[in-house]
Amino acid sequence: MRKKIVFVGNRYSGLKALLNNSKLELVRIFYESGSYLEKELLTDDLNNSLPLQEMPKEKERLLTELSNIRYDILISNGCRFKLPVSVLQDGSKLFLNIHPSLLPRLKGKNPLNGIFLFGHKEFGVTLHYMDDGIDTGNIILQKKIQVTSDLDLGMLYLALLDLEYEVLKEGLDLLDKCHFIFKGHPHSRGSYYSRKQEDMTVFFNKERSADIVRKTKAFGVLTQGVTCEIKGEQVKIFDAENITNSYFLNRYGNYKPGEVVTEYDNKLIIRTNDGLVKITRWAKN
Q1: How far is the C-alpha of 229 from the C-alpha of 36, rounded, in Å?
Q2: Residue ranges of E strands in 89-220
Q3: Which of 125, 182, 198, 217 could staple 163 via S-S, CB 3.0–4.6 A?
Q4: Which residues contact 249 (CB under 8 A, 6 or more apart)?
C-alpha cells in the first residue's frame, strides 16, 4: 500500500522528488504564497491534478487543517512554522524535514548565510526526523559539496535545489528498504544561525576589509545585500573585493576610512579601517 504524504513548504525540489516516486501518494500540498514553489506550480502541467492548498497564514489554522487529513508521512521543505510534532503525532506518523545545512552545524532559519559568514568549507543538505526541537531530530541522510572560493550565495541556492532533491529521493529509498523503521543517527548540539541586522550592516570607517568582504559575500544576492552608508546615502552592496595591490594601497592610503577614493564603471573603491575594498555591485536603498 502506498504511503500517504503531506508536503509543507516553499521549494519545489523536495516536491519534485515526491512526484517522481510511484510508491507514494500525495494527499495534500501546502505551498507558501509568493514562494518559488508557487511559481513552479504555476508553470507545471501537473498542477491541475495536484492536491494543492495555500498554506494558512496562521500556525493554528495549519494545525487544524493537518488534524483533518489522513496521512502517514509529513515532509517539510521550507515550512516557516515550527510544527509541534508531539501534538500531531498519533503513534504511527513520520515527520521529516529537509534542512539546508550539514547538521548539527547551522541549525535555524538562515544556514546558507552562515556558510560564508563563518567560513565553512563544506555545504550540504540533511534529511532528518522532526521532533519538538529546532532541527534536532535524528539524521537520516546527508548530501554535501565543497565550498570553493569561486562560489557565491546565488550558486549555493542553485546547489541547494539539486541536493534537496537528491537527499529526499535517496532518503525515502533508504526508509522504504528499512520498512520505514530506520531510527537515524542522533547528533550533538552543534550551532545555529538566523539573520541578524548587525551581520547585514557594514561600517567602512570601523571594520576591516576582510570582514566587509565576508559579510557581503554571506548576503550577496539581490533579495538580501548588506546595508552601509556611502557619501551620506543609505546603500545596499552585493559584491565586494579586498584590494591587495600595493600601488593602490599606497596611492589612496592617506584617505580617511569611509571615503570613496575613486569610482569607475559603476564600481567604487572605498577606504576601510585597514585598507581598500572595491564595491562591484550596489544599489541605493
Answers
A1: 32
A2: 94-99, 122-129, 139-146
A3: 125
A4: 243, 275, 276
Percent of the chain at pLDDT exceeding 70: 99
Task: Give first-to-last CA distance, the chain, whole Å.
Answer: 55
Alpha-carbon span 3 to 153, nearest angstrom? 36
Query: Angle of helix 36-43 relative to helix 12-19, nearest 10 degrees?
Result: 40
- Which CATH number fits the domain that encloses residue 230? 3.10.25.10
Strand ranges in 85-201 using DSSP code E only, listed in sequence order: 94-99, 122-129, 139-146
Q: Indicate if the pLDDT at residue 83 is higher than 70.
A: yes
55 plus 170 within the same structural domain: yes
pLDDT tens-digit readout, 238-282: 999 999 999 999 999 999 999 999 999 999 999 999 999 999 999
pLDDT tens figures, 149-205? 999 999 999 999 999 999 999 999 999 999 999 999 999 889 999 999 999 999 999
DSSP conformational letter for 63:
H
Q: What is d(CA 137, CA 123) in angstroms, rounded to the nearest whole number?
A: 19
Domain that holds residue 218: 197-284
Q: Are 126 and 142 in contact (CB under 8 A)?
A: yes
CA distance 207 to 23: 55
User: DSSP E strands: which ranges in the chain?
Assistant: 3-9, 24-31, 52-54, 73-77, 94-99, 122-129, 139-146, 226-230, 233-243, 260-264, 267-271, 276-284
CATH number at residue 69: 3.40.50.170
Which of 52, 50, 11 has its CA nearest to residue 34? 11
